[in-house]
Amino acid sequence: MNSTGTGSEHRWTILGDPVAKGRPRFNRVTGHAYTPGKTANWEARAVETFSCGWNGGPTEARAELEVTAVFARPKRLMRAKDPQGRVPHLSRPDADNVLKAVGDAIEKAGVLRNDSQAWRTLASKVYASKTESPRVEVLLRLDCALAGKVTP
Asked: pTM of the prediction?
């Protein structure tokens, strides 16, 4: 896990397999909704990563969010004739659900007041290169000059 920030641009890397935001589950006895365990565990690790690289409270700034989900490369793509670099990941989970998990974690970590501040998003899914390990790469660009001046 690491984070670097320069000016209004902040980068984080969340090591491990990317996890999509799971649908809420409901307790049959109490009727309360809860987040599935796999999603909750990943979000907890992501919150820790975002918190370590963030100083101060939640920002009010408009944000652009880029998320690259790097999945473990399957053995079928490890042949000598297969490309060395990253390869598009075209199966489940959906990129938008990975983006939702990242947005929720950024909000819980206190980086953004609300993940709806991300007015532009880009989510990509790839298989790792032959030498990479799985992870989620996050780039957050903040427009601090317009913080709080634009209302919906």
From this structure: 0.85
pLDDT tens digits in sequence order for the chain, 152 residues long: 445 543 489 999 999 999 999 888 888 899 888 888 899 999 999 999 999 979 888 999 999 999 999 999 999 999 999 999 999 999 999 999 999 999 999 999 999 999 999 999 999 999 999 999 999 999 999 987 655 544 33
In a domain, 117, yes or no: yes
- What is the number of domains present in the chain? 1
Examine residue 151 and state whether it is found in any structural domain, yes or no. no
Residue 13 vs residues 3, 26, 81, 152: alpha-carbon distances, Å: 7, 31, 29, 31
Q: Which structural domain range is residue 75 located in?
A: 2-146
